[in-house]
Amino acid sequence: MSLIAAFGLPEAGWVLLGGAFGYAYVRYKERVRRREISELRAAEIEAGKREAEALLREARIAANEEAIKLRSQAELAYVTRQQEVAAAEQRLAQREALITTQLEGFLQREKSIQAQQTALDARDCALEKARAEVDSLARERREQLAKAAHISESEARAQLLKECEAAALSDANEISRRILSEAKSKAEDSARRIISLAIQRYAAQHTYETTTATIALTGDEIKGRIIGREGRNIRAFEALTGVTVLIDDTPGAVVLSGFDPVRREIAREAMQRLILDGRIHPTRIEEVVAKVKEEMDENVRKAGEDAIFRAGVPPLHEEIAQVLGRLRFRMSFSQNVLDHSVEVAHLTGLLAAELGLNIAAAKRAGLLHDIGKALQQDMEGSHAQIGADFLQRLGEAPDIVNGVAAHHDEVPHICLWGILVSAADAISASRPGARSETMDIYVKRLENLEKIGLSFPGVDKCYAVQAGRELRVFVQPEVLTDDQAAALARNVCRKIEDEMQYPGQIRVTVIRETRAVEFAK
């Protein structure tokens, strides 16, 4: 009260003054708070700008890196594309060069044809002139003949035509003979070239198998265990395998002898297992032999698949591969038939390549040509026909079936595979060392063949050709007729079958010809 009184202001004035001061203070605080808010917003905006600029810089850096990467990829794609374009341009240039060469060849051929056409036209003109001269001479001769012989023109024409026919027939025969001779010579030269190239391009080992197998021993004491007490082990082994065990004084070896290669292979494998095992007694021998026999089917299948692989033929039917593997244990003149089939496949493929034919089909026919030999013990007939029937039943192509059936000329050829297989078969069988037949036995067999042919009446000459696979019989035409010649061929075949032993088949060809001989004086 004293303070208010001291300033000399009434109480209401002080209230107003206090209100004004409070209002000013509130406004001041409000301005301070707004300024702080503005500064805070400005700071946040500045921080946001800085963060946006940082993000923008990072985005630019990432964009630059991505652009560089895309540019590198684009440049690599461009270089690759340029290389492809260059390669395509090079191929195009080569093709254009080839087309240009072929076009030049066609132009040269066209020029040659035009020259030949011109020459033919000239020859036609000369021929027309010669024909006119012949007609003129013929008319003159007819007139002369009519005057000299006092015959009519029709009779003279008939006589002249007869003479011209005889002359033309003689000329035609001479031309035909010359053409056939030239064609045969060219065909023989071409065939000889193709076969020689195929033989040179194919090289195979000149080996053959025998009828024995030798088992190496670690010591001679094992021989006694193989023989057993009083020979019971060796007797049991021979009885179960069907082979003969030869134990002699040869150190470190036992020989297994047998003509059946399947039995010999079973015996060899069983003997090796028994020697490694060390337990050799009848019961163990029976167990091992039975086990080896069970494994033989798997070995046969593997042998067939291996032959298909070696021949370069696409996979065949499973049953065909199984039967083909049996040929691994089949021999022909000590030549392994499976190896022979693979060799024939390669040779047939080479011949087909030289002729521009389907190599895969040729190899297929060559590989399967002797498959019937694995089925002969179960069927009657020639191995070619048996094999063809078997392949046809399993869905082989008709040309392959015919190639197998016709490779011994037993059925007509409907394609070239039978001919190529026959040629390759002869090449494989005739290689030096391919077969083990001795020269004395070979010559004796050929002599016996010719003697059988000469033993029949009316036979003039007889020759064994094709390494004894064919017998050619020349008969006297004035003694035997054509029907009798056909009957003679059948009789010779029967006599060969009754009196001789031979591999495969022998073809008998009876030739009857009449020759007219005149002498020009």
List keywords for this structure.
15 helices, mainly alpha, 521 residues, Ribosomal Protein S8, Chain: A, domain 1, 5 domains, three-stranded mixed beta sheet
Outline:
It is built from 15 helices and 8 strands.
How many extended strands? 8
Largest sheet: 3 strands, antiparallel
* Uncertain stretches of 5 or more adjacent residues: 200-209
The number of domains is 5
Strand coverage percent = 5-15%
How does the overall form come out from the CA principal axes? flat
Output the strand order for the largest sheet. Answer: 1-3-2
The termini sit apart by 191 Å
The number of distinct helices, counting runs of at least 4 residues, comes to: 15
Secondary-structure element string = HHHEHHEEHHHEEHHHHHHEEHE
Helix content: 55-70%
Structural class by secondary-structure content: mainly alpha
**Structural Rg:** 51 Å
Q: Could you tell me the mean pLDDT?
A: 80
Multimerization state: single chain
